[in-house]
């Protein structure tokens, strides 16, 4: 259960997904303060993506996408100069309802966006996972690698991990995050992979993982 208010950490190229880990190096003073406060409290922060044009007001409050993902700090390494190395684990999607004015960093009132899987969707997701694995295996093999998909990884965790780690544009990851549930995200991921498999001019997309 998410708290009703979250500190917001907007970045230009990072989209967090539920139950996926994200390492971050925190160096800006406002976000160092945010991490210190989170560590003294529930350790939860909200990750959001900055909208295009953010550079014009980066030191202020540039526009962000309203849907983000909360994460809990599972590991924190404070450095001597006040910076932090942290690791977040994605918890749950949220939608920003309102942002509080002022403050050292941004704080938002949020609405949780849970993604429960009902039984018919679970069966459909298992079928879509097979399509996803086959498509990704062909991409990896063309790039000279060997596909490895641990069967022990839950279907929803695999979809979320691929959505976060495959080499997509940030706005493409954001679109995947905003899909209505994991089944829709899996289908969106398949569509995106099919679109990128052959880029214009016949150049193959390698699908590198960050």
Describe this structure in words.
With 210 residues, the protein is an alpha+beta fold. The chain folds into two domains: 5-113, Roll (Archaeosine Trna-guanine Transglycosylase, Chain: A, domain 4), CATH 2.30.130.40; 119-202, no CATH class. 34% of the residues lie in helices and 26% in strands. The protein has helices at 29-40, 119-142, 155-165, 170-177, 182-197; strands at residues 5-11, 21-26, 44-49, 67-78, 84-99, 107-113. Helix 2 packs parallel to helix 5 (182-197). The longest helix is centred in the middle third of the chain and has 24 residues, at 119-142. The two termini are 30 Å apart. The model has no long low-confidence stretch (mean pLDDT 89).
Given this structure, which CATH class of the largest domain is correct? Mainly Beta
Sequence of strands across the biggest β-sheet: 1-3-4-5-6
Number of strands: 6
Low-confidence residue ranges:
none
> Nearest-angstrom radius of gyration?
18 Å
The domain tally reads 2
Quaternary state of the chains: single chain
Distance between the termini: 30 Å
CATH architecture of the largest domain: Roll
Helix/strand structural class: alpha+beta
Shape field: globular
**CATH topology label of the largest domain:** Archaeosine Trna-guanine Transglycosylase, Chain: A, domain 4
């Amino acid at each position: 259960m998410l708290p009703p208010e979250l500190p917001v950490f907007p970045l230009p190229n990072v989209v967090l997904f539920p139950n996926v880990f994200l390492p971050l190096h925190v160096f800006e003073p406002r976000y160092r303060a945010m991490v210190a406060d989170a560590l003294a409290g529930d350790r939860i922060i909200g990750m959001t993506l900055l909208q295009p044009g953010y550079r014009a007001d980066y030191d202020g409050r540039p526009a962000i996408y309203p849907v983000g993902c909360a994460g809990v700090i599972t590991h924190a390494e404070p450095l001597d100069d006040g910076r932090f190395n942290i690791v977040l684990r994605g918890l749950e999607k949220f939608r920003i309802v309102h942002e509080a004015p002022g403050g050292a960093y941004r704080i938002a009132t949020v609405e949780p966006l849970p993604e429960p899987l009902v039984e018919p969707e679970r069966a459909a997701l298992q079928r879509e996972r097979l399509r996803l694995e086959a498509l990704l295996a062909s991409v990896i093999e063309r790039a000279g690698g060997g596909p490895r998909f641990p069967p022990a990884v839950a279907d929803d965790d695999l979809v979320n991990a691929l959505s976060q780690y495959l080499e997509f544009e940030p706005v493409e990851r954001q679109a995947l995050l905003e899909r209505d549930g994991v089944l829709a995200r899996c289908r969106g991921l398949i569509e995106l992979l099919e679109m990128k498999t052959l880029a214009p001019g016949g150049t193959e997309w390698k699908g590198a993982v960050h």
